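ok so I'm stuck.
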Amino acid sequence: MTTDSGKKTRRTIHQHQWHQAWDNSIPPLATIQSGEEVFFDLLDASNGEIKPDSTVDTLRTLDFSRVDQVSGPIYVEGAEPGDTLEVEMLDLQPASWGWTANIPGFGLLADEFPEPALKIWDLSAGADGWGEFAPGIRIPLSPFCGEIGLAPAEPGAFSTIPPYHHGGNMDTKHLTKGAHLYLPVQVPGALFSIGDGHAAQGDGEVCGTAIETPMRATVRLTVHKDKKVQQPHFLTAGPLTPRTNTDRYYATDGIAPDLLEATRSAVRHMIEHLHTTYGLSRVEAYMLCSVAVDLKLCEVVDMPNFLVGAFLPLSIFSK
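replied:
not stuck anymore, here's the structure
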């Protein structure tokens, strides 16, 4: 889109322009041409319920009917079912603060951590800065959005909590500035939405929250007729985790005949390691795993057991 003066403009979606289901009946907020940029001013995943001065008591009164909202949808001219929508992450700027929480009933080990816990982060150093988890533990920021998706072909309202073949709550920490995401178009116009800003996260987001933060996101949306994907594909901006992949890793393994139980076991062992080695409380260790520890499928072919590793980057600790 250009003005009469020939200057390129971009659409702006504001914080109050959100919806809470993937639903192809939701009217689009804007219609754009393929290749046009859109700027989103996004609230955090709590939809503004958690603030910089919040305490753990805030978690006890969260209205879960409002969380994990997404902003949009955007109608992209020319997008038809069977096409692919390319989402280029042009810029991602977190707010000056964020939060990580253990929310009762939520997370990989929810049955083992029934009490709420909340950490408010100082993110004033910006997108290329660091957030201090505790004295001597600093997490490099690597902003991305956890919720990115298109409207589904099926009629009705689908929860924003899980991921789907058309996108959704993917929580993929590699979708940072410069990455390209490819989503299968299910309905005319694609109906693109985005939300759930994260300043940093470990692969797995095991306690259910990352460094949650309001986000200012700029994306370019481009329709491709000659590229076909059935579920999301993406191209990273460069090498994976370049800001943490600068030192050795300490890893704990989980081994079990069930993949989920192997994952839970690996995280339990890492929590115990962080607790005994660094003096963190168990819930602090759990939250640190969610923002910094990467889960990896180390072995999936020697039945009856799977092996999952939890990888802790030692670069986050002061020497």
